[in-house]
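$ fold --in a.seq
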Amino acid sequence: MNGAAATAGAGSVIQIFATGYGSLDASGAAPVQVMIAGEPAEVLYSAPTPQLPALWQINARLPAAARGQVSLYVVAGSTASNAVTVRVR
């Protein structure tokens, strides 16, 4: 869990869990874009969580320049999620 006592390092990979992933591509992945601190993040994985089919897992690399409390949101197709705050050191 990310928070004041457990910050993520800039450039590290974080796991994002959500619901409502929409359409999957031929490989079973859910193509998305992740924005962190106003910058696109590298998406390494985006698909339903194998152990919990209703849960969507996204692994994304935090931008190297991200610091402090930053906003994160996911864009699937033309729909953006609500923003959440991630703490980065």
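$ fold --in b.seq
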Amino acid sequence: MLKLHQVIASCAGIGYLKGGGTFAAILTCFCWYIFFPTIPNIFVTLAITIIIIVYGIWSGNVVEKWWGKDSSKVVLDEVAGMCVTLIAIPNKWEFVLVGLVLFRFFDITKPLFIKKLETLSGGKGVMFDDVLAGIYANLLLQIIVAVTNL
């Protein structure tokens, strides 16, 4: 069971790469852009995102015993945060790219209480800072979409 959590938490080994979080976010953008047109509605994308978050909390709890607190090997949190960033955003490459930049900005700099969420125990600390970074990125991206679609 540990191996399964390690594989999924590291997104099939991406977490072992230098800059794995960025690579995981880029891969998520690519997959979102490719598969989003085939997903029927926002509720499905929201459900998928919630499943990733819940599994990420569970997996974060398991691998923390082996890898330590909020290990850089865990990149499923970047996948979750990137999904949150792109929920209810038009599937245009420009918006996906801006979403990536905004999410990585918030995830790396950790302003506005994001850093505080890292102090939560186990998988919650791993996931919730990225989820909040994704929420902030999504809010800004919603404004950008609204302004550019006037």
